[in-house]
Amino acid sequence: MINQSRSTQVWTIAKIELRRAFLSKRGFWVYGLALLPCLIFFGHVIEIKIRRDRLSAAGVLQPALLDGARKGETVEEVVHRLGRSGDDHRWESRRRVRAEGEPTSVTTHAVEPAVEARFVRLNITRPTYDGEPVARIYEFEVYGAAGSANLALNHPATGSLPCNPEEGPEKAFNGSVSGGMRDKWCTEMRDRFLQVDLGAVVKVKRFVVKHASAGGESDDLDTREFNIQVSKDGKMFATVVNVTGVKFVDERTSHRSLVYFDGRRTARLYFEDNKLDTINIQPLLNFAEDREVFAGIFQYFYLRLAIFFGCLGIFMNLFRGEMLDKTIHFWFLAPARRAVLLVGKYLAGLIASAVIFAGGALLCFTVMMWPHDPVEIRAYWESAGLAHAFWYAMAALLGCVGYGSIFLAAGLLMRNPIIPAAVLLGWEGIINFLPEMMQKASVLYYLQSLCPVPAPMDKGAPPLVQLLVSPAAPASRLGALLGLLALTALVLSIACAAIRRMQINYGSD
To answer: What pLDDT is stored for residue 381 in this prediction?
Structure first.
């Protein structure tokens, strides 16, 4: 009888508190969090309908015709077979390229007649063709009258301050360009020069300069303008070579894009210079892709943010809201134990949050399926669809169970909701770096284990990002259910102890 009376009290309190949980002015933003994914998918539905109507207005082709497109066909051949496209875009691209026969990575500069020199100096006035102010020389070779031996090989070198110590002047005289990006001389200084001491005065007749593209870099980084000077004493230099850059021409390419539709797929055909170059056929709607998008939104937004902050708004307000309104003492004067009051308020918050977020998840799931082929939906529903919907709703419900208990307790123990929210959000973010036992003290760990479809993850994402969003060792579903309920019971027992000791002091708030 006593138990029945307490149960009745709990339900009575819950019914009274449901109005606060559902309609509090402080918590209306919770509905926005719950419905935002629905709006996203609804917008996707509208966008698909507009695209389908626009594509259908231009005509619907037979699938076999769409599949018959072949690379190399001309625009005229495609249009003759498929008809005119309702989506026809034309444009022209232009890029500057070196004129045919112009030197690129390696330039040779002869001196006639030969000159006597001990010191040879390369002065760079414009280091690149794309405007970057960094000079790069992979090799600078000096040849005498005989022309067979590189007189500068491994001789003492000086130059402008290098980009880093591993790219000093000596790298330009080591006889190699195959050592990677570090096998070069590089400088960012305004006064860009490279000088070598041949050791004695010799007759010099030819110079060879190996630029950035000789070492595998872009030819836009090749040296554009430079001169070469010689000296017998290292003081008086005479210019013997002056290079003002290579000639460029404009390479123009005409582009055209035609789009066709067969009722289910769109085909975007790209032409370059009137020849079919790329065929991109994609389904207008991709059910598998939309399910992956839903899984990502559910785990990255719904569980981590929407339910988290939604429970913060609902459950923190159950006690803190009444403290701010200075009405909590009425409950404490009622003929009911404080633990009963706590359970009643928690039940009210749980009902409200479950309806809002579990219902929101199912509504979003329904909107996601809405525009797809009924036959495809029926096949999915008869295989895994019902189980997926159940576990998405269960994960949302248990998220409210776990986060609700934590924020209800926080409302009793702390005045500022920002502090517990920030601490818990940080804890949930680092759990995958913690030992497995510590991970089990996290609501998110159990919720991720309940999700029926893994959240999509780009294979190229950094390992740290993959670790942050994926549970290191997911629990079994039974283990996740029991673990989350045990964690909730522990938090509620702490909240019960706190409410028994709680003293009303509105002045301190």
So the answer is: 93
